[in-house]
Amino acid sequence: MNHVRKLWNNSEPAVAGWMQTSSALQAETLASCGYDAIVLDLQHSVTDFAATISMLAAIESKGAEPFVRVQWNDPGDIMRLLDAGAYGIIAPMIETRAQAQALANAMHYPPMGQRSFGPRRPVLRYGPDYVARASDTIVSLAMIETRRGLDNLADILSVEGLDGVFIGPADLAMSLGSMPVPESDDPMVIEAINDILAMAKAADKRVGIFCGSGEAARARISAGFDFVSTTPDLVMLATAARRSVAVARGQEVND
Ligand code: 3PY
Ligand code: MG
Q: I need a labelling partner for 98 at 20 to 30 A (CA). Which of 62, 160, 229, 255 fits?
């Protein structure tokens, strides 16, 4: 069974890494650091399909669950990534029930959905009867990050076959006329995030959110979120590099 799903079944939240870089070694290194899942961001990074496969395998080899935030809610891409060994799909900019249903259809084999057969890598992990339990091995999250998605949230949450929603706080803030930051202090954005959390819980769905730091992720877990990302890898790399250069030069360190 999916590691994240197992945590959820035990009422525990999942802590995920967020990768903006494109390196199997870096994916393997991060997956060795205690994350429950690692999300490859294929929407806003430069990672191609060949690199994605190596990274998914590297993450799986260290026991973290390999997730992907796809470029768009495209059924062909999603099915191909599932066949390549992604066990969680986070689809951006879901705004309507029909879009959420299309995501669910891409995630599940018939009769629940319309996923096409060809699980090249999943059979290596789950064996020849993978198809019978495929739905248990994957997690599907629809991103809510626009005013329209917020307006249609009740309909989106009613789709069977989706585990829940994942908030993109920067796009959500921008869509509400505020600055696109992960942890906004704009009361309108805070209220929208609280509303999504409450509605998802009331609908018995899981709810995740992108976080800019471990501290922010901790606060979101305390608020009741089931799935949080932490500092993106590129941010950690730049922060550590700046610090190291400053220390070497005997300069003040500003983290
Ligand atoms: C957002 O905050 O809009 C995201 O999609 C997180 O990367
Ligand atoms: Mg976004």
A: 229
Taking only the tens place, the pLDDT of each residue in 43-63 is: 999 999 999 999 999 999 999
Ligand 1, atom 5, residue with closest C-alpha: 168
Q: Domain 3-248 falls in which CATH fold? A: TIM Barrel (3.20.20)
Q: Which tokens is 184 given?
A: 């906004």
Question: Residue with the nearest Cα to atom 4 of ligand 1?
Answer: 168
Q: Is 18's C-beta closer than 6 angstroms to any atom of ligand 1? A: no
Domain ranges in the chain are 3-248
Give 56-118 as a DSSP string: HHHHHHTTPEEEEE-SSS-HHHHHHHHHTT--EEEES---SHHHHHHHHHHHS-TTT--PPS-
Of 68, 115, 59, 66, which is closest to residue 89 (Cα–Cα)?
68
**Residue 255, pLDDT score:** 73
Q: In sequence order, what are the beta bridge partners of 90?
A: 69, 141
